[in-house]
RNA sequence: GGCCCCAUAGUCUAGCGGUCUAGGACGUCGCCCUCUCACGGCGAAAACAAGGGUUCAAGUCCCUUUGGGGUCACCA
């Protein structure tokens, strides 16, 4: 055997551990590191030992800016992952020079540079987190899901949980949505310390009420060269995009046509009232490193980032600007949001850079999925919190179930309270695979919760649900003329209290004469879409919608409405259809329509 | 398609190099309990995507491939 040298010096490309990544500190950045090893204590061959040391040296390299690192050779097992978790940080990325904000914001666009990832929120910084739902429809389970993790984290750390309404899209805003979001969140048991309805020191908490703030910040950016006015029309943008697609360009996006405009000219045109947007002047070359607490350093090539619109021509900010400005002004310490945001995070990092602000820590939770693994959507799954409420799910069970999506309590514990979750909460127990929202398991959990209720509590739960006095009165209005004795009430109104209906007894009659069942099924789905697009839920409007729908399909209302009646009540006779639908509520109705559509489509022609 | 993320049973997950002949749960199936149905109890089938490395040792680390997902708007 060859005599071992007294020491071995290897120079290797050592990959720097992603700083403070909770998961897999895998290689992202390669930096030459020289490791000097004393093989004295090593059990294996010197080279092998040196490699092991090099592995351990990753962390050291990360924390020492890639300078020469000496590591003691020893046979103890290095755990870079654990060490990385404990806070090794990257301060220099790769070999590029650091960017000045000016360079980053485009004054010096030709010089390649590497942007530093956002600094980590320091451990002792007060925790302030937020959820920022957009009031564009029904309260979404995804909102509750993300809210839960924000809430649990905030509570554990004694921090604040903030609710902010992101209503900058005037075209999609829905009048009743905001209140429904409040109600739904409170229903599951999450409450906020600051928000539009409770106030707070950093208000207003509705973005539509903060327009002046965004305008001011956008102007500041334009002044500094970090953003510019764009006068391109929608048509031109469309053409550019079409051409890029025709050319099969790998990177799509705005062609920066207006970026070269002279400042004076730009200002003059704006002053003259010409419609324009304000765009981010993204650096033209280099990398942006996003630091994600769960994933570590996520690199993005700046070439992939286009000059994102910051201010729309209607004077409203886009999400990107509003979210960065608000998070900074509201002193948000951790941005906990869904994974779908990860690819726009580099833009946000660029914005923080351009403003000269420290970025919060980013934590992207995995996306809730439908059974086919795609992002959960109302076409494939009930996504409204109201659905689960109306379907008889207890709020505690829903919350517990949501906690199971991507997080594990520890041990084999699956059933736990919010308080217990807060106590046990830790980011390293989050798993990154996208969890499928599985109704079966939710129902099983719900069963557990119901069985724990006392008899009196069960009754209270029922009375607070569809057996409430108010709801019964609504039903009484519909059936009083239709019963002769009290004992007829329950059998006659059973479908007001049921979940999914059994269509087997009536399936033969669920159809439209001379129309393929598959087409009828599709028609039912089309009605769901129409109903979704509506604002209110009152009989007159519903009837109008249904009539328009029947006409569109060229179905006689007689047939179309019987189809609906069967779908919604499972019966051929019911109180007036649209009044019934109103009382049934949107969630039960749309679910039944969907289930019926499936049943019908599966029917033999 | 470019970029990014992810990868243990049908599903949710445990697993942080040796304790894994891979643990728990939902669902499925069987048995028991039982006047029925449920609950409950017991049991069974069912997974480390593939291929290369690294290592004495890999589900666990690295790479590639494959697969899945997200994103590429004057939507959030």
Describe the structure.
- By secondary structure, this protein is α/β, with parallel strands linked by helices.
- 40% of the residues lie in helices and 11% in strands.
- The chain has a 3-stranded mixed β-sheet with strand order 1-2-3, covered by helices on one side.
- Helix 19 (539-552) crosses helix 21 (577-584).
- It is globular, with a radius of gyration of 29 Å.
- 41% of the residues are buried.
- The model is unreliable at 1-21 and 23-121 (pLDDT under 50).
Labels describing this entry:
11% strand; globular; RNA-binding
Total DSSP E strands? 13
The major beta sheet can be summarized as: 3 strands, mixed
- Tell me the Rg in angstroms: 29 Å
Helix and strand content put the structural class at: alpha/beta
Instruction: Give the percentage of residues in beta strands.
Output: 5-15%
Give the termini separation.
82 Å
Oligomeric status of the shown chains?
A: single chain
Mean pLDDT: 81
Strand order of the largest sheet: 1-2-3
- Percent helix range: 40-55%
């Amino acid at each position: 055997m060859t005599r071992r040298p007294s020491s071995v010096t290897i120079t290797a490309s050592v990959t720097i551990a992603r700083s403070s990544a909770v998961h897999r500190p895998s290689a992202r950045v390669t930096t030459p590191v020289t490791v000097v090893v004393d093989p004295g204590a090593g059990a294996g061959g010197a080279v092998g030992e040196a490699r092991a040391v090099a592995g351990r040296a990753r962390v050291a390299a990360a924390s020492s800016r890639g300078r020469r690192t000496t590591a003691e050779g020893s046979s103890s097992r290095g755990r870079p992952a654990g060490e990385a978790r404990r806070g090794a940080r990257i301060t220099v990325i790769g070999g590029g020079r650091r960017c000045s904000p000016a360079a980053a914001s485009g004054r010096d666009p030709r010089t390649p540079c590497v942007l530093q990832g956002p600094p980590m929120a320091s451990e002792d910084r007060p925790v302030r987190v937020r959820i920022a739902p957009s009031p564009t429809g029904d309260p979404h389970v995804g909102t509750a899901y993300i809210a839960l993790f924000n809430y649990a984290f905030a509570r554990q750390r004694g921090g604040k949980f903030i609710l902010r309404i992101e209503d900058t899209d005037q075209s999609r805003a829905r009048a009743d949505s905001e209140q429904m979001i409040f109600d739904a969140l409170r229903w599951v048991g999450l409450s906020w310390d600051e928000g539009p309805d409770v106030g707070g020191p950093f208000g207003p908490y509705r973005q539509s009420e903060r327009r002046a703030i965004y305008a001011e910040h956008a102007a500041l950016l334009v002044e500094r060269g970090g953003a510019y006015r764009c006068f391109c029309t929608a048509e031109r943008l469309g053409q550019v995009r079409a051409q890029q697609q025709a050319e099969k360009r790998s990177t799509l996006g705005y062609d920066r046509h207006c970026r070269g405009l002279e400042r004076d000219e730009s200002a003059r045109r704006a002053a003259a009232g010409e419609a324009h947007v304000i765009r981010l002047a993204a650096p033209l070359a280099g990398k942006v490193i996003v630091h994600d607490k769960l994933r570590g350093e996520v690199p993005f090539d700046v070439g992939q980032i286009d000059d994102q619109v910051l201010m729309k021509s209607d004077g409203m900010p886009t999400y990107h600007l509003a979210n960065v400005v608000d998070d900074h002004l509201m002193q948000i310490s951790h941005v906990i949001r869904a994974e779908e945001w990860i690819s726009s995070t580099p833009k946000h990092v660029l914005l923080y850079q351009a403003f000269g602000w420290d970025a919060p820590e980013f934590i992207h939770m995995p996306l809730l999925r439908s059974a086919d693994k795609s992002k959960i959507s109302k076409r494939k799954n009930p996504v409204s919190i109201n659905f689960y409420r109306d379907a008889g799910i207890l709020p505690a069970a829903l919350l517990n179930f949501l906690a199971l999506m991507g997080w594990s309590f520890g041990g084999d514990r699956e059933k736990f309270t919010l308080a217990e979750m807060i106590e046990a909460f830790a980011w390293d127990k989050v798993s990154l695979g996208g969890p499928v929202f599985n109704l079966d398991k939710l129902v099983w959990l719900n069963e557990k919760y119901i069985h724990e209720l006392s008899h009196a509590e069960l009754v209270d739960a029922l009375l607070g649900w569809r057996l409430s006095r108010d709801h019964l009165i609504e039903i009484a209005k519909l059936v009083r003329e239709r019963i002769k004795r009290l004992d007829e009430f329950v059998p006659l109104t059973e479908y007001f209290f049921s979940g999914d209906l059994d269509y087997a007894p009536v399936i033969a009659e669920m159809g439209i004469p001379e129309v393929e069942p598959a087409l009828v099924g599709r028609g039912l789905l089309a009605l769901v879409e129409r109903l979704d697009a509506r604002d209110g839920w009152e009989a007159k409007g519903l009837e109008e919608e249904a009539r328009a729908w029947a006409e569109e399909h060229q179905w006689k209302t007689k047939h179309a409405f019987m189809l609906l009646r069967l779908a919604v009540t499972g019966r051929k006779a019911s109180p007036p259809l649209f009044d019934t639908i109103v009382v049934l509520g949107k969630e039960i109705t749309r679910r039944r329509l969907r289930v019926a559509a499936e049943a019908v489509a599966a029917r033999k022609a």
